[in-house]
Amino acid sequence: MARHPKYWYAKYMPESVIERFMKKKEPLIASHITGIRSATGVEAEGWFVACPLSPRLFMSEPEDFIYHRLIQCGKIAQDLGAKIIGLGAFTSVVGDGGVTVAKNLNIAVTTGNSYTVATAIEAAVDGARRMGIELPNATVAVVGATGSIGKTCASILSHQAGAVVLIGRDPEKLDATKAEMPAPNAGKISTSTDIAFGLRDADIVVTVTSAVDVVVQPEHLKIGAVVCDVARPRDVSVRVARERNDVLVVEGGVVAVPGPDVNFGMSFGFPPKTAYACMSETMMLALEGRYESFTLGKSVSVAQVEQTTMLAKKHGFHLAGYRSFEKAVSEEAIGAIRANADRKRAAGLPSAARSPQPAAR
Fold this sequence. Notes:
Blueprint: H1 15-24, E1 28-37, E2 43-50, H2 55-60, H3 63-80, E3 84-86, H4 90-93, H5 99-103, E4 108-110, H6 113-130, E5 139-143, H7 148-157, E6 163-167, H8 171-180, E7 189-192, H9 195-199, E8 204-207, E9 226-229, H10 238-243, E10 248-250, E11 253-256, E12 274-275, H11 277-288, H12 302-315, E13 318-324, E14 327-329, H13 331-346
């Protein structure tokens, strides 16, 4: 959570003290966004409205309290003249994915999840290319595949990958999800309820569970694997960053926002003129004049992902880098990870943990 510059002293205070303060603090206007200009010439402006709650509070406080705070944010946006508000990060995870918020506002609401999925897939595929992985020969694993976002990721990637493993906790739901996959690709799709077994041969991992705790550990991953963690809270253990210098982990892409003079009016840890994909979905809908509740609820369709991909191309949004455990991932870092993977493979080191359970289906 970015701390507003007005409260610079907060970095010296214990988290528990800050959270007590947050629960009493009303939402506020954090900044005015200017300079957004589409490749078509259309311009837009907007505002960041801060909901001053930590990730832990978002996940632990009663839903009614969270809804009240988010509706307050939406009403601030209405008063400013905004025609659409985008929920991002934890604000889109809690509750019903914006449905209740939208019912209580007179402006459109989107979670930004459609473009988040689009950029996650793009980041995973591009990361694989940079790591020397050929997608038609690669095995892709989707962790949390029975969820709506997981299904969408698996469906899209099944057209491109050599094999797809659907990983989840419920074998019946996994079978049902497999049955929903595009018929021409069914033969290359398997399922697993054992994450260690399911990931052991995966060259590319997309993880999108709703788990409270991390589920992907260092010993699960193949040498040279690419992992795209779309989940919030994070699915991938921070131990992976510490212990596996041969694995590339990204948390979705950093998106370049079009316009020579883009100014967000504040820093949230990204390079200038770049933003999260969820933010970018809101901006592109505004540029398109589509003031509608585009991505609401917990489901994301393939059609929605395709539409945001087309809108991004039309208006000039594109990937501009990666984030991993809240830090930027440079080209040099990716090159070093690939070199480490090559050395480990050449040395014949074991690739990943081997599950004793015959969990493939």
